[in-house]
Write the structure tokens for this entry.
Amino acid sequence: MILNIGDVVRERSSSPFASAWRVEGYLASGRHFRHYTVRNLMPDMDGHRAVLKVIKYDPRLTHDADYVRSLRARLRRECETLAHFSPRLPEPLDYFEIDNAQDQFEGFGAEQLRAQEPVLIQTLLHGASLAQQMEDRGAPPAPADTLLLTLAKVCGFLDELHAGGRGWLFWALSPEHIIVDPHQEHEPSFVGCSNFRMLSHGVVVDDPAAGVLNHPPEPGYAAPEALCRGRSDHRVDVYAMGCLLFHLFTGTDPRDLAEDILARGQYGAHGSWDGDFEASDASPQPMSHGQAQAFCEELRSSMERFCRRNLKGLGISRARVRRMLLKAVRPDPDDRFQSPLELRDSLLATLSRSRPVAWPDPAIDS
Ligand SMILES: Nc1ncnc2c1ncn2[C@@H]1O[C@H](COP(=O)(O)OP(=O)(O)OP(=O)(O)O)[C@@H](O)[C@H]1O
Ligand SMILES: [Mg+2]
């Protein structure tokens, strides 16, 4: 496992990585990657700051070369996808294979795996993820009208992503993956693109070579058709937008509600989404179609109850927000908003009816 990539690369001062970049400090981690801020050491780069992305291995699985290779494929995929999509996503700046003495790979080929640890440098995005902002400030993390406008912009980005003969799904849309500038000087941008799925004739295609990518997504933000690995299209992202609205305006993570429902065991055991995906005894399994529909129906009812008690937001019609999000998370995709642009129209209509209110002052939110 990489414990401290900063130490690893500093030791190798003659490597191309270490002569070009200096690791400054830790930035953030998700499920598969760990991020550090780095500074460019090249004379003409003026100490330009960027992000170093490294793989976070599960130490229980480093004996499994397929596991290691599939995570590496995921990092490479991220690099390729970023090259395709800038400027709303970070730009890939550099890609190195470093000798990582801290990796504890075992078995045949371990030496080679250790010597070829891939690391990616990408641009540092302005702002903080909506997840971080909720952690820092609670929910909603910004005035309701600002949030509605941000979400409308996210819908615009999703539409761009879905469009074209070779469209993509975001697939893993969640507050961790949306980076927003609290000062509103930069447009929202996105991370998590190693999860993107390709659309073929409007329907998501599984990539047999994608390894860990082919597991069903974690329940909560995932639409039922994704949970049962059924025919999925761009409306999976509309579903996630409904979850995001719920999460931002109630402060309750739909993944936590989902976990509570699954803990009751009614929908069978579907494995664990904690830690890394490949733990063989607990890797996530798809639900049946019927289970996924019933599960998402129950989750939606739970969200509806939470909305009645906990929906917050100054100066907006909370009834409209509730209706909007409950429509977006309908289990049957035909019952949802049919596109991000349809949801965006609804967000903008709600915004036009909202009245500006000083923020934060929960006392007047009645
Ligand atoms: N280029 C960047 N600029 C600023 N922050 C970033 C950048 N890349 C990642 N981050 C931070 O790291 C967090 C996790 O990023 P990311 O989702 O890419 O990793 P992950 O969750 O391990 O991967 P995955 O979602 O593919 O499993 C983000 O929420 C964000 O806070
Ligand atoms: Mg992530």
The chain has twelve helices and eleven strands. Residues 30, 176-177, 192 surround magnesium ion (ligand 2) (CB under 6 Å). Residues 128-364 form a domain with the Transferase(Phosphotransferase); domain 1 fold (CATH 1.10.510.10). The CA atoms of residues 178 and 184 lie 14 Å apart.
